[in-house]
Amino acid sequence: MTQLEELLADWIPRQRWFAGKGAPVETVTIEAEHPLVCGDPGLRVLVVDVGQRGSISRYQVLLGLRPVGTLRDELAHAAIGVCRFGGAPRTVYDASHDPELTALLLDRLAQGDGGETDAPRAAGGEPRPSSAGPAPAVRFRRLSGITVRTGQRSLVLKGEQSNTSLVYGEDYVLKAFRRLWPGLNPDLELTAALADSPYVARPYAWIEADVGKDGAAVPTTLAMLQEYMRSATDGWVLAATSVRDLYANPGVSPAEAGGDFAGEAERLGAATAAVHRALARELPTDVLTPRALRELASSMLERLRLATTEVPELAPYAGVLRSAYEAFARVDEPLPIQRVHGDYHLGQVVRTDSGWVLLDFEGEPAAPVEERQRPSSPLRDVAGMLRSFDYAARYQLVGSASAAELAPSARAWAQRNRDAFSSGYAFGGGIDPEKHQTVLRAFEYDKAVYEVLYEAHNRPSWLRIPLDSIAALAA
Ligand SMILES: Nc1ncnc2c1ncn2[C@@H]1O[C@H](COP(=O)(O)OP(=O)(O)O)[C@@H](O)[C@H]1O
Ligand SMILES: O=P(O)(O)O[C@H]1O[C@H](CO)[C@@H](O[C@H]2O[C@H](CO)[C@@H](O)[C@H](O)[C@H]2O)[C@H](O)[C@H]1O
To answer: I need a surface site. Which of 53, 278, 341, 407 has the fewest CB within 10 A?
Structure first.
C-alpha cells in the first residue's frame, strides 16, 4: 500500500458512510485519482477500492491537499493525515468540508463542461456530443435549459447519511455518492425522470467519471446537484415530534393527542401513489412472472439466512419469516412491477410548504446497481414506509424506563399512521395495500431483516427495534 492508501485504510472504516462495517478491511487500493485543482489548496477525486472478505467495494473520496500546518482549525476534524505529494508533505483531508474547494465544484457544474443533456437513462450512461472532443476524466454535466448560480458557500448536511450532501446557500444540494457502482446512479435516473413532478426536488446537474467494469469504461455518477427544499422538515423529525407529544400524555389516544400525525401520513400515502404513477408513466413497467416471483422469494430467504448467521437473536423467528416468504412465492395473481424508490422511509421524505417531497431514489445503498435498477412491486415502498412508522413509535422506548408503560401507546400510534398512510396510498391511485396482505407481509419482513443487518453494522443500540418488530409481527 502507498502512504496515502495506508492513511485511507485507517480513515475510511471510521466514516459514517462506510458500508462495510461488520467485516475487517483487508486491502485499500486507489483505483483512480483525478486532479480537479492543482496547487494549494489542491483537490482530487479518488476512486478507492476497499477489499473485505475477498470482495471489492468502491468508494469516492474528495481529497483536499494543503501544505502541512495550513489546515484551518475548523477543518481539523476533516483531516485524514500527512503524506508526500510531488516531493513535499501535504495534509490530506475530506474536501467536502472545505467551502473554498467545494465552491469550485459548483463553478464547474455551472460551466457544465461535460455537456448538456435531457434526462439521463440507464444502460451504458449518456453518449456525449461528438463535437465535445475527447472526454475529460471527470465530467460536469447539466440538464438542458438549466442555469446554475455560483458564489454560494457550502455546508455539509449533518445526519445519519450513507452519502455526503452539501447545501449551497439556500438553493442547491450536491449529493456526493460515497459507495460507487459502475453506471448511472438510480437517484439521478429516477429524479431526472420525475423532474416535472411537484413531489421531487428538481434535478439540475451531475458529476460523472468513467469507472472500469469487465474491461470497459462505464460512465458512473459521482454526485448530483438538485434543488434544496429550504422550507422542508424531515418526515422522521415530524413523526418523532408527534410520538413525543403522545408519550408525554400516555392516557390519551393518538387520535385525540394534539400532535396527531394521521393527516400527514394520509397525505404522504397519496404523494407516494402519485410518484409511483409518474414512475410507471416515465419508465418501463412489467408483470412479475411466477419464476421471477420465486427468485424474489429466494433472495428474501437468502437475506434471512445471512442475517440469522450474523444476528442469532433472529433465529427464533426464522420459521415464521420463511413461511411468509413461501406464501409469497405461491401468490398466483399477476404482480405489476415498475421502478420504485427502493429504500423508502420517513427520513427520505420532507414536508414543504406545499406538501410532501420524496428524496433519495438510490435504493438500498448496499445492493448492486443492476439490482436497484430492476423493476419491483410498488408495495415494496409501501412496506418500507409502514416499517418506518413502527420505527418512529419504537425508537424513543429504546433504553427507556417507561418502555413497558408506553408500549400500548406505541402500538396505537404506529397502527393509526400505518392505516392512514395505506388509505392515502389507495385513495391516491395506488394498489390498495389492504388487498395484498401476503405480498405486503413478505416485503415488510424482508425490510425488517434488512434493518436487523443495518442496525447490527451501524447502530447496534437500535438493533432491538427491528428485532422487536419482527417478534411482534411474528406473534
Ligand atoms: N434536496 C433537499 N432539500 C432539503 N433537504 C434535503 C435534500 N436532500 C437531502 N436533504 C436532507 O438530507 C437528508 C439525507 O439525504 P439523503 O438524500 O436521504 O441522503 P443519504 O442517501 O445519504 O441518506 C434527508 O433526510 C433530508 O433531511
Ligand atoms: O437513508 P439511507 O439511504 O442512508 O438509508 C439507510 O439508513 C436509514 C437510517 O438512517 C435506514 O432506515 C432505518 O432507520 C430509520 C430511522 O433512522 C427508519 O425510519 C427506517 O424505517 C429504518 O429502515 C435505512 O434502512 C438504511 O437503508
So the answer is: 53
Q: Residue 21 in contact with residue 458, Cβ under 8 Å?
A: yes
pTM over 0.90: yes
**Taken in order 113, 115, 216, 178, is the CA torsion positive or negative?**
positive
**What number does the ligand 1 atom closest to the CA of 17 have?**
22
Which residue CA neighbors atom 27 of ligand 2 most closely?
A: 364
Q: Is the CB of 154 under 6 A from ligand 1?
A: no
CA of 348 to the centre of ligand 1 (A): 7
The pLDDT value recorded for residue 130 is 44
CA separation, residue 469 to residues 253, 297, 423, 473 (Å): 21, 20, 22, 6
* pLDDT tens track for 119-143: 787 754 444 444 555 667 899 999 9
**SS in 3 state form for 438-474?**
HHHHHHHHHHHHHHHHHHHHHCHHHCHHHHHHHHHHH
Domain ranges, residue 63? 3-95
Select from 470, 473, 467 the least CA-distant residue to 311. Answer: 467
Tell whether 71 and 113 lie within a shared domain: no
324: cell is 411468509
- Across the chain, what does the average pLDDT equal? 93
- Closest by CA to 362, choosing from 371, 352, 350, is 371
Distance CA 116, CA 113 (A): 8
Q: Which of 380, 363, 413, 390 is nearest to 467 (CA)?
A: 390
Cell numbers 427468485 label which residue?
A: 295
CATH code for the domain in which residue 409 is found: 3.90.1200.10
Grid-cell match 450474523, residue found:
310
Do 391 and 369 belong to one domain? yes
Ligand 2 contacts CB of residue 345 (under 6 A): yes
What would the pLDDT profile of 235-288 be if each residue is shown by its tens digit? 999 999 999 999 999 889 999 998 999 999 999 999 999 999 999 999 999 999
ipTM greater than 0.95:
yes
Among candidate residues 178, 201, 148, 235, the one with its CA nearest the CA of residue 45:
178
